[in-house]
């Protein structure tokens, strides 16, 4: 009934009929039926060809025969998205050698051979529940359970049993009492931290709320949950976001676990994909205490400047609701200055020429508009680099998004595994990113349009780019079928990222430019 109702919408029906991946059929009763690939069922069925046994992981083989072209297109694209590589044509596989490995594994099992296989239980801590769910979904349908302040997702991989959970942001913050606004200053500077607790005004690092009522447990329960989890696992991977805030959250978790877990390492990845996640677990690193110190300095500066200025402001104007801050106050001053400038209106005369808006300075009494072409040339321009954070926000603003909205949408896209990390000042594109660009450009435009550029040297951070071989049309298809927990605004922002990235890896554009002179009375442009 739901499908029939939606198919009565001409726009929806047209999109289904034009889709290369969703088929429309009618059953014996004449009712419409949408036909698309059951990717989850395919992964579960094909996964059973390979089993985890005392002899290790056995070799499997899944051969797929397609009778519905649209369903196959959908399965192929979705597998390429989930597995980061498409299914291989049978002609590219040495079937004899592969079948021999399958048979040899079976013979070893019959002989009772084992490898003394042990599966270690390991925990992965991220900061976002959405990211924890996305990571867990890479390995099938996870088991879910609750610990104090935590939701834990449990999955079995090839070589380990993973328990994934999220801190839901910072665990602690500068205390509201003691020292100078939470910082002891005698004999040095020692910030005092307190677990974040729940109050009507939000999370506060204090035992009592602003109105004097006791605060309710919140992140302190999550700390308790992490300590309980430490009793179940051999190691912790602290996989919070790859920036100073993420490093501080990882440090808080590490300190909470110090007496209960000996193996506590940082796992850093810049795209929420199976490959990036696996590589991060294979090459963990110690925490970067310099990053942690940088976050502490910034937080202390925010607290000292913000609290001191706010107190002075409230005392001077007698209004307890006013506040000031290290960033907030200068930006507000800039906004006010720009608003004052905008009030100083200089007269101008506006003329529309087709779709072109001409604005002549001063008041022009009128007359004939003269148009003269002075010069013409052909120019080749290299495309701009892929987005950094500031460039993305500028382009998003032109598309009608506020800064907070754009960052929230980008965070959702990152956590769902669609784009790389969105807080970056790097324009660098990794070899994996360039390979992704080549694949997308060749499929969309042809090999003659590819011109790969790294846009930078070395470093861990990349520009903002698609994390998977997924076009905006692919994402729109997923939204249409309810396969992506996102909305139309996410699609618009993803299209900005996708288009800018592909352009950055394509051949220069040739432009035909002309210079014109416009004359209206005594005024010229």
Task: Please outline the helices and strands.
Layout: H1 2-7, H2 10-18, E1 23-26, E2 32-35, H3 39-47, E3 52-53, E4 56-57, H4 69-83, H5 95-111, E5 121-126, H6 129-137, E6 143-147, E7 150-156, E8 161-166, E9 172-174, E10 183-184, E11 190-191, E12 193-195, E13 197-199, E14 202-204, H7 219-230, E15 235-238, H8 244-257, E16 264-266, H9 274-282, H10 289-317, H11 328-343, E17 348-353, E18 356-361, E19 369-381, H12 389-398, H13 403-415, H14 431-444, H15 472-480, H16 488-504, E20 509-520, E21 523-524
Parallel strand pairs: 5-8, 5-15, 15-16
Antiparallel strand pairs: 1-2, 3-4, 6-7, 7-8, 9-12, 10-11, 13-14, 17-18, 19-20, 20-21
Number of folding domains?
Answer: 5
> Given this structure, which CATH class of the largest domain is correct?
Alpha Beta
Strand content: 15-25%
Radius of gyration: 29 Å
User: What proportion of the residues is helical, as a percent range?
Assistant: 25-40%
Number of helices: 16
* pLDDT averaged over residues: 88
Q: What is the distance, rounded to the nearest whole angstrom, between the alpha carbons of the first and last residues?
A: 61 Å
Largest sheet: 6 strands, mixed
């Amino acid at each position: 009934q739901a499908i029939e109702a939606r198919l009565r919408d001409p726009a929806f029906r047209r999109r289904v009929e034009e889709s290369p991946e969703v088929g429309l059929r009618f059953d014996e009763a004449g009712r419409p039926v949408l036909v698309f690939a059951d990717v989850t069922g395919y992964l579960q069925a094909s996964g059973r060809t390979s089993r985890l046994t005392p002899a290790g992981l056995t070799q499997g083989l899944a051969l797929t025969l397609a009778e519905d072209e649209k369903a196959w297109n959908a399965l192929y694209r979705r597998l390429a998205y989930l597995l980061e590589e498409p299914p291989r044509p049978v002609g590219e596989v040495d079937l004899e050698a592969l079948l021999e490995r399958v048979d040899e594994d079976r013979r070893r099992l019959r002989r009772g051979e084992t490898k003394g296989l042990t599966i270690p239980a390991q925990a992965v801590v991220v900061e976002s529940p959405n990211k924890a769910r996305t990571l867990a979904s890479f390995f099938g349908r996870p088991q879910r359970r609750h610990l104090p302040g935590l939701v834990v997702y449990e999955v079995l991989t090839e070589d380990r049993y993973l328990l994934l959970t999220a801190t839901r942001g910072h665990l602690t913050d500068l205390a509201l009492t003691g020292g100078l606004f939470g910082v002891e200053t005698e004999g040095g500077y020692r910030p005092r931290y307190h677990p974040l607790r729940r109050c009507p005004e939000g999370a506060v690092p204090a035992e009592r709320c602003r109105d004097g009522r006791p605060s309710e447990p919140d992140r302190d329960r999550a700390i308790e949950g992490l300590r309980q989890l430490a009793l179940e696992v051999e190691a912790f991977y602290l996989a919070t976001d790859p920036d100073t805030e993420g490093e501080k959250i990882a440090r808080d978790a590490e300190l909470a676990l110090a007496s209960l877990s000996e193996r506590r390492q940082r796992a850093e990845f810049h795209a929420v994909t199976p490959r990036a996640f696996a590589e991060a677990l294979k090459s963990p690193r110690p925490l970067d205490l310099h990053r942690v110190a940088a976050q502490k300095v910034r937080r202390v500066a925010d607290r000292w400047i913000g609290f001191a200025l706010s107190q002075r402001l409230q005392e001077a104007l007698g209004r307890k609701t006013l506040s000031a801050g290290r960033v907030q106050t200068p930006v507000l001053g800039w906004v006010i200055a720009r608003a004052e400038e905008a009030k100083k209106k200089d007269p101008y005369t506006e003329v529309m020429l087709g779709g072109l808006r001409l604005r002549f300075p001063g008041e022009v009494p009128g007359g004939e508009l003269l148009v003269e072409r002075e010069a013409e040339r052909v120019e080749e321009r290299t495309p701009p680099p892929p987005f950094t954070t500031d460039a993305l926000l500028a382009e998003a603003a032109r598309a009608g998004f506020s800064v907070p909205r754009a960052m929230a949408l980008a965070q959702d896209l990152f956590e769902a595994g669609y784009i790389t990390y969105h807080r970056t000042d790097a324009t660098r594109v990794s070899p994996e990113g360039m390979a992704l660009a080549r694949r997308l450009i060749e499929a969309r435009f042809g090999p003659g349009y590819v011109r790969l550029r790294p846009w930078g040297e070395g470093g861990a951070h990349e520009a903002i780019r698609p994390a998977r071989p997924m076009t905006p049309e692919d994402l729109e298809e997923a939204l249409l079928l309810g396969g992506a927990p996102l909305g139309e605004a996410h699609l618009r922002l993803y299209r900005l990222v996708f288009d800018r990235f592909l352009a950055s890896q394509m051949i220069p554009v040739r432009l035909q430019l002309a210079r014109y002179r416009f004359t209206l009375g005594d005024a010229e442009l």
